[in-house]
Recover the amino acids of this structure.
């Protein structure tokens, strides 16, 4: 059977599902790692940061690797490494103590696979022959598969944990490892687009000579942070800050977030040609700012749950839109452009959740210290001490959608 570019698209879609697995499976176990293995909030935030920092390093290496050996070998390797990392996630915590060390080793391995996917899948989709006007919509549709993968991970993992017990969590990474393992063979057989030769591409140095390039980098950083801060902490936020049980917390928190994010990307994928991208980006960024305010300050749990879901919709266009706009602005940027954008995006993906965890840890410590002070003192009655630790952590990260909003307006003015 001769495979076509249609099968290449399928492999890329499944590649994004793989990335959703490696980015979102471990956070569903945060409550287990915290309560069973005594991993602190700062430790959990550090695992998220480690994941995306490793991906960031891979992004940097891929700039030259893709040009030398092509997309196919790296995409096959990405699936194999992701499979290995997921297997280690289920195996090493049973063999190594402290558990944090076992988790860190697993994270490093599957993050290498995730980093390769982040850099390579988007330029492959961008390089498949299509009407140039449809490429932003195609990019958004591609990224919607990350959301559907995220939803599947959340719902199936939550169901299996509720059915077989939290103590059997370690079996689930083995189950999810089947997907990248199978997709590895599809990438082996599917046709692959060629890497743009370096002599025909716009080098990073030349792109760096234009101010709009730095706006692209800032937009990617803020897009990654705005998205992953809520995505990574939604499960624990729903369970701890909103006092929901594990199953309800995962469904009402990260699952709704993923549903709304995927819906937003499909909407743009289907009707993107009729939507003006810059007004849509600015609207989305403003909505994201409002959602972060609600997550941090709203006194009613239903309002916070609604804000969590709407955050998914508000960030849905950010990442794919920046990739498409940057590709249109630098049409000969090639794999180097996508790699440097992925690098900045992963920097945001890691720094946002890490900052949220860091601030949450400090807020929890400060809150305990304040509780020991005399009732009625200025500090115990202050606004900040009434915030739950995770609310404070999420609120601190509002800086990212605010910066995205400002950068999007500046990018629009540069392009006008």
């Amino acid at each position: 059977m001769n495979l076509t570019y249609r099968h290449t698209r399928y492999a890329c879609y499944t590649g994004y599902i793989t990335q959703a697995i490696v980015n979102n499976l471990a956070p569903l176990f945060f409550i287990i790692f915290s309560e069973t293995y005594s991993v602190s909030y700062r430790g959990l935030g550090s695992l998220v940061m480690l994941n995306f920092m490793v991906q960031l390093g891979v992004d940097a290496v891929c700039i030259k690797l893709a040009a030398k050996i092509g997309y196919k070998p790296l995409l096959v390797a990405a699936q194999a490494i992701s499979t290995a990392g997921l297997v280690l996630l289920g195996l090493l915590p049973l063999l190594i103590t402290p558990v944090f060390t076992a988790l860190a080793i697993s994270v490093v391995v599957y993050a290498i696979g995730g980093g390769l996917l982040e850099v390579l899948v988007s330029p492959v989709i961008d390089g498949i022959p299509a009407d140039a006007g449809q490429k932003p919509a195609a990019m958004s549709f591609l990224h919607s598969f990350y959301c559907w993968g995220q939803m599947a991970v959340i719902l199936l993992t939550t169901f299996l944990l509720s059915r077989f017990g939290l103590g059997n969590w370690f079996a689930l990474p083995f189950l999810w490892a089947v997907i990248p393992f199978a997709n590895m063979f599809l990438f082996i057989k599917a046709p692959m687009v060629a890497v743009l030769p370096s002599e025909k591409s716009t080098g990073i140095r030349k792109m760096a000579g234009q101010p709009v390039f730095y706006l692209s980098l800032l937009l990617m950083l803020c897009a990654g942070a705005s998205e992953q801060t809520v995505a990574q902490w939604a499960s624990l936020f729903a369970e701890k800050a909103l006092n929901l049980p594990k199953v309800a917390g995962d469904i009402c928190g990260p699952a709704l977030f993923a549903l709304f994010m995927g819906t937003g990307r499909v909407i743009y994928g289907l009707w993107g040609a009729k939507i003006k991208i810059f007004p849509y980006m600015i609207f989305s960024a403003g909505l994201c700012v409002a959602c972060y305010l609600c997550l941090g300050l709203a006194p009613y749990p239903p309002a916070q749950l609604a804000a969590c879901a709407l955050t998914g919709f508000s960030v849905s266009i950010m990442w794919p839109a920046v990739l498409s706009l940057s590709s249109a602005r630098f049409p000969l940027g090639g794999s180097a452009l996508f790699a440097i954008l992925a690098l900045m995006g992963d920097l945001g993906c890691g720094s946002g959740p890490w900052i949220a965890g860091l601030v949450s840890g400090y807020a929890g410590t400060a809150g305990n210290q304040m509780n020991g002070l005399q009732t009625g003192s200025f500090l115990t009655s202050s606004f900040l001490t009434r915030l739950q630790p995770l609310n404070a952590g999420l609120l601190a990260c509002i800086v990212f959608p605010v910066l995205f909003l400002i950068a999007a307006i500046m990018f629009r003015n540069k392009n006008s």
The CA atoms of residues 157 and 172 lie 7 Å apart.
